[in-house]
Amino acid sequence: MSAYILRRLLYAIPILIGVNLLTFVLFFVVNSPDDMARMHLGEKRVTAEAVAAWKADHGYDRPMLYNAEAEGLGRLTETIFFDKSVRLFVFDFGSSDDGRDIGRDIAQRMWPSLAIALPVLLVGLAFNISYALFIVFFRATYVDLASVVLLVTMMSISGLFYIIGGQFLLGKLFQLVPISGYDSGLAGLKFLVLPVIVGVIGGIGAGTRWYRTLFLEEIGRDYVRTARAKGLGERLVLFRHVLRNALIPILTGVVVVLPLLFMGSLITESFFAIPGLGSYTIDAISNQDFAIVRSMVFLGAVLYILGLILTDISYTLADPRVRLQ
Amino acid sequence: MPMVDKAARWRVLWRGIRVVSVMSLLIAGLVACDDRPWNDPYPRDTATSNTLYSSFGERPKHLDPARSYTVNENTFIAQIYEPPLQYHFLHRPYQLIPLALAEMPRVRFYDAAGEPLPDDAPAAAIARSEYELHVRPGTRYQPHPALARDAEGAPRYLDLEPGALAGIDTLGDFAEHGTRELVAADFAYQIKRLAAPWLHSPINGVMGEHILGFAALGERLEAADPEQARARVALLRDTEFEGVEVLDRYRLRITLEGKYPQFSYWLAMPFFAPMPWEAEAFYAQPGMRERNLMLDWYPVGTGPYMLTENNPNLRMVLERNPNFHGERYPDSGMPGDRAAGILDDAGAPLPFIDRVVYSLEKESIPRWNKFLQGYYDFSGISSDAFDQAVRVDASGRPMLTETLEARGVELMTAVEPTIFFMGFNMLDPVIGGEGQRARLLRRAISIAVDMEEFISIFLNGRGVVAQSPLPPGIFGHRTGEAGINPFVYRWEAGRAVRRSLDEARTLMVQAGYPGGRDRDTGRALTLNYEAVATGPDDRARLNWLRKQFAKLGIELVIRSTDYNRFQDKIRNGTGQIFFWGWNADYPDPENFLFLLYGPNGRVEHQGENSVNYTNPEFDRLFERMRNLEDGPERQALIDRMVEIARTDAPWIWGFHPRAFSLYHRWYHNAYPNQMANNTLKYRRIDPALRAELRRAWNQPVLWPLGAAAAVLLALLLPAWWLVRRRERSRAL
């Protein structure tokens, strides 16, 4: 397994270079270094000299990808792309364009993201699996039909609706929880209630339908028929056999998102004023802060690759027949 | 066996019921004991504290006074830093008074030979102006580790050993905080910082045009090693330049080239606030930047407040500066102020409020709802919430809705010193230029684009139609019949009435575009509008705009692009028609009329004249006007300049926005002052009343919890019964 993991890690390097290159190209198609300078220097009384000085100060006065004036390897290394990318591979994210240390900001902001994302994942998982098993228990009945209609309806509603609706009902109308905000420690619990409820409800439609499909696929298999033929009750069949055998696709879905929980949610964090990494990314995009954007994309790619490796490993734990070679 | 199973099951069920009952009683008991609202986002012990609550939507980029230039940054730093001057809180027209100074600057003029000139000397004769600033003795900085000293009097934290910052994350983690007296050299140091190329001060360029030797100083400072932050501080301290001279501990002289009366206004901005060199030296030490400990994030000032918590991702907290020199609430204002209660606090020591908490609130809906719940003390009104907040009476006067009136909320409106206009690129061969044909076309369009309708539809009436570049409240602005733009309006029955479309069509005929067709070529006239359109609201606005041009038979093509490309078009002069705005730096007509001054053209000179308008007579008059004191001569020049601009019509004059602000009844001394940013010190609140009203407004509604539990039970019990029945049923 160690060799497999090592190989996967090595495969990650060209992927990360590709992701970084793609981010670089996409960002600079929309924003030029001049645009970035003007964004940071402000709208009023900005001179060409000030723009040039800002670019020189922040290392954006070099060629983008290829420096024709340099010699040898310098043609590639004396460029904005190389200068801004190479340190990422040792997880040195550097400073944002306004001078703040990105690594420190990320370390601070990933916890609020996690504080929302983890309960949403766990509570959502428990609820969705339970509900899906319940539907499967009553498959091909009116309970099944009504549930599917309900789930499709819930899937069709925008996540924003749940957020605004939740804030209106629980925060404004019933006045049970703060509408928005965040705090650390125990004082922060009251701020988590609403975003977690909204996150769980918002995920019921898609999540439960997905698990229902998985369970229905399993429930028609021979081993289930055998279990029933042995006289096992339906509950035991579902929990002991169907659920266990459906674990692999469930694990695939869950483990792969585990590392990404740190990355936060753009809209939820914005509406609930959660100082997480989701709002950090969206702020960076609107402020044209390339240093943060590339760091967050890079980190997201690393975490995604990590999630995929963890998924592979979890297969072997869930199903002894799977071997990583 | 089955009997045993059944008994065990009942025991489990009974235990569960007991647990649920005890927990319910516990929760009910807690609710009964604590009448504090459940939705209160603030800590329990702050309910009746003298704390003001507000929000910010976008984290400030800079808190360094040399760099900060936006309103959301000034919200914070204007309470912390004290520039030499400030605007009187109540007097109108806006009046400058000393803030960090003991008295107003003494201004002296000299000719090219260095001989003194009288105050009324013509601007052309003045070779240099000297501003002598007398700093108020006894002013002390806020407590700060950079100013801490050890027993021998040496700086405590200015020469830290490597590793000394272990465990330090914020300024509060330093054990000792010190202070020292404000001296004239701190102003000199800050002015040199404005010239430092590494700080990218936005006013570097404009000050380079006026302060003697400022531009040369910038060039000298370029030699500083970018890797040696502490060496830069030393260089700034040691470098002398002719534009600024420290006369003694409390006196400073600033020398300007020629005459520049607007310089006094710059002295009221945080750019000129004093900076202790120790602060920069402190932050320049290794390890500080890696901990985000920077002057750009942790200000050091002499003002009424200091920043004690700086987490721009969540919350920023200002607290009363214990070393504040003291200031009194003004004892004079405008007629009617005393009757309105604005002078009730006359002579009282400032500031009134101990602590101010700004919470990050990016979205308007939660911000508005928290204001309604009393968790923010004041609020603006977003478009979404306008109908909930304001209704317009029969005479067009804005009033609060009954709901807000019942809560005791108060509405305050004020026209902002800002203009939004539709600009015609004067370099464009069709719509621009000095030719009569293009001029008539621009005037026709000015009539057709109905700005009253625009304000009504898209701004909920929150704006005043502009008749010239000068907003109300700025010297030179005229009201009544004398103030209307005669090319677009006529004066009828005591009010301005927009000229008819027939008149606009006649102008089109005179311009050679009858019915919107070019008389020479017979082709339909097509114009391009440069837009930065992103949402559905923009689409409605653009459709409206198309219809305005269509009234004259003109086809308006919307060229929508992203903001960066839009800016490029304006910079390169490739746009044709666009929307633009300007917010005053200071309340002087020069700050608006310079938007039409030829040598300020955007394409040729990178200036703020975005339409690249040029008129030799206008430019000549501007050069005379900008150096005059307010008075009849200046008014006459402004009248003529406005007339020229109206005749040439490089802009559709657009509108001046009207700010609507809401205040809860416990919030006092709300008074519109559009120029001053340091007004927090004048505000007063009644925390006891606020706590009482918050409690009354935010009692939790508990029945939905019971209803939700009942619904859940109603769903689960039949389901449980169904499951059981199904499991026990026999196969057929």
TrEMBL record, chain A:
Predominant subcellular localization, coarse grouping: membrane
Membrane spanning residue stretches: 9-30, 114-138, 145-165, 185-206, 246-267, 296-318
Location in the cell: Cell membrane
Keyword Membrane (UniProt): yes
Keywords: Cell membrane, Membrane, Transmembrane, Transmembrane helix, Transport
Listed GO CC annotations: plasma membrane
Pfam families: BPD_transp_1, BPD_transp_1_N
Domain of life where this protein originates: Bacteria
Domain ABC transmembrane type-1: 110-314
Annotated membrane topology: Multi-pass membrane protein
Keyword Transcription regulation: no
GO BP: transmembrane transport
PANTHER family in alphabetical order: INNER MEMBRANE ABC TRANSPORTER, OLIGOPEPTIDE TRANSPORT SYSTEM PERMEASE PROTEIN APPB
Similarity remark: Belongs to the binding-protein-dependent transport system permease family.
Protein name per the record: Peptide/nickel transport system permease protein
UniProtKB/TrEMBL annotation, chain B:
Keywords on record: Membrane, Transmembrane, Transmembrane helix
Cross-referenced SUPFAM superfamilies: Periplasmic binding protein-like II (SSF53850)
Molecular function in Gene Ontology: peptide transmembrane transporter activity
Ranges for domain Solute-binding protein family: 181-601
Pfam annotation, one family: SBP_bac_5
Record-linked InterPro entries: SBP_5, SBP_5_dom
Name of this protein: ABC-type transport system substrate-binding protein
